[in-house]
Amino acid sequence: MSLVVFVLLPGVHLLDLAGPAQVFSTAADFGQPYRIAYVAEHEQVLSAQGLPLIARTRWPQLNGDDLIVVPGWRTRTLGGGPALSDAGSAWLREHHAAGGTVASVCAGAEALGRAGLLDGRRCTTHHDHQDELAARHPHALLVRDVLFTTDDRVVTSAGIASGIDLALHLLAVRHGPALAAQVARDMVVYARRNGHEPQDSAMLRHRSHLDDAVHRVQDLIDARFTEPLPLAHLAAGAGVSERTLTRLFHRATGGLTPLRYQQTLRVEHAEHLIDHGATVESAARQVGFEDARMLRRLRSRTPHTTVREPSGHGPRTDG
């Protein structure tokens, strides 16, 4: 039986806490060996949303299979927010040193930083706190604009809903993607986003609907966006006609066709590759375009699209 311990600090955000807790609770409902516990330095913790929470006040004994999660809290600045005691920080360090995993959501990365667990490791946090986290912990390797990072059993996520993505990722690593998909489906979280996905991505912008057939098609496109995906193949996967799929997709996504949705994913992934040093031509091939002309053409159709070249070239604006 694995214990998942949530460390509650004053002003904890409910969704930072409830999202990951729901993931592991749902996994337990499906027969996985998880127990959930809540620990704090005071028995009652007032959440950022005004709901009082009750927690145990003794740091539990853990083994290497157990997981610690530090949800984020409401704060204008990380330095001005709540902090774990020296004993709490030592407990985090000892668990990691013993082979355990430590995770954070949003501002929770500050608790990991104060415990020394971010030094020399990749990490992230909510975009509002990225600059301050980098300044406060200069030895940390901050990764900007991603949903979550993992580095040597230290897992950090961007904040709020991304804690769900972090928890689903941990399930997939421990038990395989089928369980993570089953839990996501039960929670009506149709897309399990990867850690490298931007905090504002097409999968976020076009997933706020409840059309199950369209979600199934989006799942297929998300997994195979680099491949040719004929409309007939997508329609068969959704169990509807091509004409019906086009109509449903257009309505659910605010005017997109399946092809345009796929192209949007390709462009976003190409941007990510270019940001990490790939040439435009190389990025275009990696995301499924035959050459860079289509990639440039799609960018030119989007107002204010910045084409970022690899290091050594300044940015320019197409269109």
Automatic annotation (TrEMBL):
Transmembrane spans: none
Annotated stretches, region: Disordered: 298-319
Keyword Transcription: yes
Keywords in alphabetical order: Transcription, Transcription regulation
A GO term for molecular function: sequence-specific DNA binding
Composition bias, Basic and acidic residues: 306-319
Xref: Pfam families: DJ-1_PfpI, HTH_18
Domain HTH araC/xylS-type, residue spans: 215-297
Protein name: AraC family transcriptional regulator
